[in-house]
Each structure stands twice: as C-alpha cells, then as structure tokens.
Write a structure and sequence with these properties.
By secondary structure, the chain is mainly alpha-helical. The chain has a domain of 91 residues. Helix content is 84%, strand content 0%. The chain starts with 8 loop residues before the first helix and ends with a helix.
Amino acid sequence: MREPIRPDLPAARGRKLRMVWILPALFLAFAAAAQDKTELQGLYAAVGVLNQEQQAIFQQFQMLQDLRRSNDRIFYASQLRGPLGTTDVANYSDMVQYQRDVARRGEELAQQAEQLYAQYSEISARRALLQQRILELSAPQ
C-alpha cells in the first residue's frame, strides 16, 4: 500500500502565515471602502445643500437687480419731472432731496448685490473643494 501524501509541513505553515497577514489587510480595505462610501454620501448631501443655498442667493440677486433697474428708471424719470404721482410743481429742495434718496437707495441696492455676489462666490469655492474630494474618493485606486 502506498503511504498517503502529506503536505510539506513548513510550506503549509508559510501559507497559513501569509493568510494571517492577508485577511486583516482585506478587512482593512473593506472597512476603508465602507468609510469612503459613507463619506461620499455625506459629501453629496453637502454639495446638494450648497447648491440650494447658491440657488436661493442667485434668486435674491436677480430680485435686487430688478429693484436696481426700477430704481434707475425712477431716478432718470425724476430728472425730467418731479416725483412720480405728483401733479404739482415740485419745490427745488424737495426735488434735490428726492433725487438724493433715489441715488442712496441705488447705492444700497448695489452694496447688497455685491454682498450676495461675495456669498455666492464663497459657496462656489466651498462646493469646488467638496467636489474635488468626491473625485478623489471616486477615482479608481
């Protein structure tokens, strides 16, 4: 009768030792992938929130632009005649005060528009950083 073939004991031990090192490495890789997936979900949610904020700011900016155009029309109309809706001949000092008020309102609206633009730009920069991180996590490794 033939003797059963037994694996070489030192070689079998070497394979087992390699498995001991490979299994934790695989576990860490799967854990890192799960963390990346969770981080990606959070990043996508954050980008969505920033998009909504940007959209709201853009709508406010558009409304301010309409107010500025309206104010400009009022200003130029007041150059030709007195304040809208009056039929009396306006007093010179009242006309000057009215024109100053319209000009001041125009400056305030321009300042508000600049602030909204700055907020919009800041959100764009933050969104770009988040999108860069998403690309880093999404890239095949």
